[in-house]
Each structure stands twice: as structure tokens, then as C-alpha cells.
Amino acid sequence: xxxxxxIEVGKTDSIDIEDLIRFDHGDKTFCIYRIEDGFYATxxxxxxxxxxxxxxxxxxxxxxxxxxxxxxxIKSGKAISPPACDDLKTYPVKVENDLIYxxxx
Amino acid sequence: MSSLKNLxxxxxxQAAVYAASEFRKHDQDSIVTIFGDENYLPYERPPLSKDFLxxxxxxxxxxxxxxxxxxxxxxxxxxxxxxxxxxxxxxLLSNDNNKFSYDKLLITTGSTNRKLTIDREIDNKIFYLRNxxxxxxxxxxxxxxxxxxxxxxxxxxxxxxxSLNQQNKSVSLIxxxxxxxGRIIPSPIANLVKDAHEQHGNKLYINSKxxxxxxxxxxxxxxxxxxxxxxxxxxxxxxxxxxxIDLFSHSDLKLENGIFTDEYCQTSIEDVYAAGDVSNFYHPxxxxxxxxxxxxxxQNHGIxxxxxxxxxxxxxxxxxxxxxxxxxxxxxxxxxCNDYDEIIVRGDRLENGIIYFFIKNQKIAGACxxxxxxxxxxxxxxxxxxxxxxTSIDKKILSAQxxxxxxxxxx
Lengths: 105, 411
Known about the structure:
Radius of gyration of chain A: 13 Å
Helix content of chain A: under 10%
Largest interface: A-B, 21 and 23 residues
Distance between the termini of chain B: 38 Å
CATH class of chain A: Mainly Beta
Largest sheet of chain A: 4 strands, antiparallel
Number of domains of chain B: 3
Radius of gyration of chain B: 22 Å
Shape of chain A: globular
CATH superfamily of chain A: Rieske [2Fe-2S] iron-sulphur domain
CATH architecture of the largest domain in chain B: 3-Layer(bba) Sandwich
Number of helices of chain A: 0
CATH superfamily of the largest domain in chain B: FAD/NAD(P)-binding domain
Number of strands of chain B: 26
Oligomer: heterodimer
């Protein structure tokens, strides 16, 4: 067992820089971000209230929840501005042949 | 960092806890004490009219911080009602006759619900919602009745109407003015909210004044000036609020639609600060004093007060922003929407969100949007940032919903 569970998300050009897309797999939902220095992935649902972050605003390496403006660091998942106080789970991402993969192990 | 010894915070709501928490980041030595008369750790109020009433959240799920956090941060709570503030001698006197001294005082007493005055016997039976105790009473009573009348079509009344409808209650809502949610909400958006309530089965009586309320065997009969009558087993009032300033009415503290403060949360009395709902503060971006009652403001104004009291002078520049959740809709409002040259509309379907931008001098002064949960958040947030930056904007892109507004921030 390697513990690897790389799932193909889509093409790299499907996400603009400083933007994100929603990615659903099984019963889980994620946000896949593209920022200046690469691609990142977190859980899709805000830790403050149950709302998807897909409609949130990406600024530099931060995602802001569209409902109540809690802010998380995209790379670490750390909650950096209230009302969010619990961190977002993050997932490893790799790019191969212009395709984005996330490891959801 | 500061030479302060003893900071007292009067009022234990959102502004208070965020002020204490921020202050502690810069000053680990001073004594910090929050005075409140509720028997709960400070909690978020927005869920009271929504997730708490529909049993989606329990009371222990919306505390701002845990008990351990306050212990670790060395932030004290005193659960006593303060009845006298002696600004001259810098002390507080509780109803138990205990005296507390302070070096600096932050007032975060919030606001108080306005009450209906119809008939003494009936007035006492009307429910209001401001705190957890009142939310529990509403929830308990609502569980035993079916027909509920809500007086007032502002955010709180409409949110309660949405929540009780979701509990399968028969809800009637009465609003005295011509549209829901007051004049600051564009009337097309107010009408969409009205439609949503009616589609879910709520009965709305708009532009209707209460003539009188009679007691009946079932509860009440409400007679309107339109000659409609409403039978109800329970009445809930949501007719606005006013700043909680009774304690200071005979003091030297400058009061004017709340406690008059500058952009640093300072009041007219040295070493006395005010933040949150109770403060009518100077806003440098809008160059006028404004008073706001919102979650985001209470939090950010509290943080600003905490910084300033700790000696880090920082202007409060947060752009006003608030939201309301009703049924599956999320309404958001930012900036000031009452002074504009032009309105630009973005979108025409709730599925994608509809936003009204209020333009003044080629810049966004305010924006108000309504859409399915989460659909207007990003664009409203971008509007807030553009207001804060005071940048002129390309108006064409505002109405083109197929073009993202993010590009406006990069200019």
C-alpha cells in the first residue's frame, strides 16, 4: 500500500490564475485552486457554516468564504480571519501532462 | 506594550470578545474583564433567528471561543449587571452593589429591541428576539402552536418567518411600510424576497398598520387598517432596535444616535472607548458618522478598539457589509446604497445571483445582491474592496455576468 490515491481533476487550463473550481468525487467535495505558484486543493465546505467555497474570492493565496467572509490560507488550510476558526483540510496536488491530480487518501 | 493596568469591557457580545482577544495579542500583562448579564459564554447571534430555530445548530455550537480559550488568554468574566458608570472616578457599580475600578473602559452594550406598545396586557405577551434566552422562549412556544404572527418585515422578522415556515408553522407577517427591509434594499430585491416568502406559504401584509389587537380564546386577533384580520396563537415583534445607552443618559458622554466616537473608537471622554452597535463612529471613507448593526461590524470594530486601546493607533476603515439568509436565499449588502447617481444591475436569475450596484462619481458606493446560497458573495466582496480602494470602475463589466469581476481588483 502506498497510500496514494491520485484522482484526475481536469486540465490545468480549466482554472484561471487566482481562481478555483469545485471538484466532486464520491460523496466528497473539494476546491481546486490555481494561484501564481501552482495548484492547491482543500475541502470544499467552509468550516464555519455549511456553504461551498466554490463561489468564494481567491486573493493571492487566500480563499474567502462567500457567505460570511471567513478567510483561509489555500496552501495550509489555516483559518486566518474570523468568523472561521477551524482550519480547512488540504490535499496534495500534482500536475502531469497538463492534467491536475489530487491525492485524497 | 501599553502602560494600562486594568481594561474593563462593558457588554459581553461580539465586539467585546473580539476587542479583548485583539487587545491580548498586544498586551499580555493588563487585567482584562468583560462585564455581561447573560449566563452564557459570548455567542454568535445570527444563528438565533435561523439555524437555532430550525434545530440545525444547538446553543453550544455558536460560542465565539471556548471557556478554555478565555482562561488561557486570561480574560475574566463578571456576570453582574452594571447599573452605574462613574466616569470621573473610573468605576462601575453593579446591582449587587459591587464596585469595580478601571483604567480604560470599552463600552460594547450593543442595542436594545424596540417594543410595541398596544395594550399593557398584550404587550407583555409579545415575544422578541435579541439573545439566546429569548430565542429559547420563542422556540419553546412555537413548538406548541401553529399560527404565528410576526410584526415587522425587517431582516429579523423575515428570518424568523423563514425559520418558522420551515418548522411547518402557519406564518403571517405584517409590515407597516410599502416594502420589506426598509428603504436601503432596492425594491426589486425586496419584492423577490416577498415572492420567496409567499411561494413558501407565508402570508405577508405589507403597507399595513395595526389598528388593534384583541385577546381571543385561541390567542389574539390582529386587526389591520386594511380591514384584514389575522388570528394568531403567538406574536413576535421585530420592529428594530436602538443603541443601549440608558446608563449614560445623565453623564458627560457625548450621545448622538448612540455613543459618538471617532475613527479610533474613542468617545468624548478620555480613556473611554465604544464599539459595535452602540457606537456612532466617524468613517473616514464616507466622511460622516455612521452607526451599524451587523455581525461583521461588531467583530471588526471590536478588533479595532482592542488595537487602539493597546496603543496601536489604527483608523477603522472597514466597509459596511451584512447578510441575511432566508429559505435558500442569501442577501448581502455592502457600502452605502442611499446616495448614488446611477444603478447598474448584474444578473436576472436567483440561480446565478442578482446584484444592484449603486454608482456615485464613477465609483461603487454600495451594492446589494440576492441569490441562492453563496451566489452573490464573491461579487459583493469585490464591491466592498473597490469601495475601500475608492477606485473608478468600468461600468460595462458590472452588468456582464459572464465576465468575472476579479479583474477590477487588479487595476
